[in-house]
């Protein structure tokens, strides 16, 4: 194999496939990326057995072939090369020479037959949305999933397609985040629980451009994301997701409107007095035109008043301030609406169109 | 005590004094800063018993007094406050109220009599240089000192004043870094070994402006740095420093001139194949117009050619690439000169005026 490509192209492609190279594994081949130049295009592939990424590299093939290289070492070599064309040439016994101007590296690659190829997915009936839409949906929900949980379903995001609507849901038992987008076409109903790690990584690969499309293909056990030069395949989490709609409610006794920046600064201040080890509730006292926020701990206390417009009844309710802050931080609106029923019921932060819904369970306070 | 100051002024002053608040200590009072508003100015002081910092805060005193506050908590409260005036008021039992607009924090301070004041230093006969000069001298030598060493002298920097010349020296047994600056006046000869931590922190406090002065006062056991609104006092390291001049030599058999950026990129590439655990030498082969750099390890090898202008004899010599890179990275010249005697003798990287001298010992290679 002998291929040549500009350093920056290699670096861009490596930056993408590195996202499916595990940081720790017992199978050393998973630390490698596959360079495949057996046909007309150069492709880099990585696969951590849960998700895999393949991307086309803009470069030229002088001699066809393929090789597996340690991803981290390969990335670092390319990163440190001069800004010029880089040539990668494989000799006998996987001896690989990477050269750029007067810099020459020799490393030893690995047998490509050990590398697990990506599963073959039949690409039909894609669901199409913009890369911007999918990236925003992920950013606005991913924080609500559980990091490590005995219940694997909680570590994934629930993706649901109903006619011309796509909905992404994350929940962890204390809160729910839902983001809904209207699509340009009507689709068959589909549902999938996608691992949180997959969603995190695809969120970083998506360009965030409104002109770029991403196509989603579903099988029973996999989802495939197809972007410009890159495809990503991920296993799905097996099981039946929670009945989210039954947890939601439009009933409320108190509705407030508040400036997002003001509320977010005040809640952020309260975080000083709460920690994983000593969770202190943030007590919100909703009045007619002011909401008081108060938190007390052995280290000290904070009180803050935020201007609001209120409809309905006055109320006092406690929350984990981190859950409130996580939700309001990702909202793009400058003015947000919060709905309360009573001090024992969850609050809902949502816009009128319900394009986003954040539900947070209250906590007891004294 | 009741004082008021703009948030940004408090933050700026806290950023300075935080540099002498230890991250770990057994004496809990050292985690505190002293707010002293007993006379006409507000002063913040911190003291980790090796170095101490005092800075004047631009604010107003409504009621005189003083208090000790946990530095980290105080800093975080101020950082999270709105962009407005902050009032700090102390009631009975060290109860402290910090308020800004509608945000009110209550924390408990500490008895100020526990706090160790800074040592009293007689401020006479200062050595004066610009903050830019001192900051650059530190940046260009500090990397050569030893981090943790049985020999405490190696963990400090040697500051030497000879007539109108100030010299700063760092060495760790494998290399020496020397930076020399000509002063505007002639001073009495002075010498001091200043702890590396002090030099690091003062380097971050110095503005780096050529118009701002810093005055240095020396006593037998202390050095005091006097800047605009801030003074820093540090203990000195006791002992006699090495005879640096005896380690230097102007003899050479080979002299090369090389573009700094080219050499530094090539040496940086070589670092991929060396680590703390497996130190591999970088072998430099100096020819008439090219220097070859080569490093080999079980992971692979690298070879690079750098254009040079050479005077004298051809030479092959090995170095720890990190030591070479550390030195050339801090040099501002685009073209650097390296002097070699033979493959067993140290190399010297220095300018014609010897305003900087970096000596690196060679290592064996096969």
What does this structure look like?
The structure is a homodimer of 366-residue chains. Chain A has 3 domains: 2-114, DNA Polymerase III, subunit A, domain 2 (DNA Polymerase III, Chain A, domain 2); 127-246, DNA Polymerase III, subunit A, domain 2 (DNA Polymerase III, Chain A, domain 2, Roll); 248-360, DNA Polymerase III, Chain A, domain 2. In chain A, strand 3 and strand 4 form a beta hairpin. The model of chain A has no long low-confidence stretch (mean pLDDT 96). Chain A has helices spanning 7-17, 71-80, 131-139, 196-205, 244-247, 260-270, 321-329; strands spanning 2-6, 32-37, 42-47, 51-57, 60-63, 65-70, 85-90, 95-100, 103-108, 127-130, 156-171, 175-195, 213-218, 222-226, 230-235, 254-259, 282-286, 290-297, 300-312, 315-319, 335-340, 347-350, 356-360. The first copy, chain A, contains 7 helices and 23 strands. Chain A is elongated and about 80 Å long. The longest helix of chain A has 11 residues, at 7-17. Helices cover 17% and strands 44% of the residues of chain A. In chain A, the strands form 3 sheets. Chain A has a 10-stranded antiparallel β-sheet with strand order 11-12-23-22-21-16-19-18-17-20. An 8-stranded antiparallel β-sheet of chain A has the order 6-2-3-4-15-14-13-10. In chain A, strands 5-1-7-8-9 form a 5-stranded antiparallel β-sheet. Chain A is of the alpha+beta class and 366 residues long.
């Amino acid at each position: 194999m002998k291929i040549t490509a500009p350093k920056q192209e290699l670096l861009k492609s490596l930056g993408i496939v590195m996202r499916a190279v595990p940081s720790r594994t017992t199978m050393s081949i998973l630390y490698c990326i596959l360079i495949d130049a057996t046909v007309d295009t150069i492709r880099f592939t990585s696969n951590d057995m849960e998700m895999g990424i393949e991307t086309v590299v803009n470069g030229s093939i002088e001699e066809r072939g393929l090789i597996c290289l340690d991803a981290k070492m390969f990335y670092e070599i390319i990163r440190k090369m001069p800004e010029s064309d880089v040539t990668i040439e494989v000799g006998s016994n996987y001896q690989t020479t990477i050269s750029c101007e007067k810099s020459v590296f020799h490393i030893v690659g690995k047998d490509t037959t050990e590398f697990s190829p990506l599963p073959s997915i039949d690409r039909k009936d894609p669901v199409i949305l913009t890369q911007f839409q999918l990236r925003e949906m992920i950013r606005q929900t991913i924080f609500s999933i559980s990091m490590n949980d005995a219940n694997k379903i909680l570590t994934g995001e629930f993706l649901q397609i109903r006619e011309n609507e796509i909905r992404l849901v994350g929940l962890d038992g204390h809160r729910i985040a839902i983001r809904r987008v209207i699509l340009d076409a009507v689709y068959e109903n589909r549902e999938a629980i996608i691992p949180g790690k997959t969603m995190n990584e695809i969120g970083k690969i998506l360009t965030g451009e409104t002109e770029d499309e991403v196509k989603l293909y579903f099988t029973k056990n996999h989802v495939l994301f197809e972007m410009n030069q890159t495809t990503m395949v991920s296993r799905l989490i097996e099981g039946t997701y929670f009945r989210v709609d039954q947890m939601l409610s439009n009933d409320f006794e108190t509705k407030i409107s508040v400036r997002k920046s003001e509320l977010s600064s005040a809640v952020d201040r309260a975080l000083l007095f709460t920690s994983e080890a000593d969770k202190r509730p943030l007590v919100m006292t909703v009045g007619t035109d002011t909401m008081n926020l108060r938190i007390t701990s052995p280290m000290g206390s904070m009180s803050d008043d935020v201007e609001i417009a209120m409809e309905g009844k006055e109320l006092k309710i406690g929350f984990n301030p981190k859950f409130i802050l996580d939700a309001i931080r990702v909202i793009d609106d400058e003015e947000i609406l919060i709905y309360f029923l009573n001090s024992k019921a969850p609050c809902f932060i949502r816009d009128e169109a319900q394009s986003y819904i954040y539900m947070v369970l209250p906590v007891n306070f004294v």
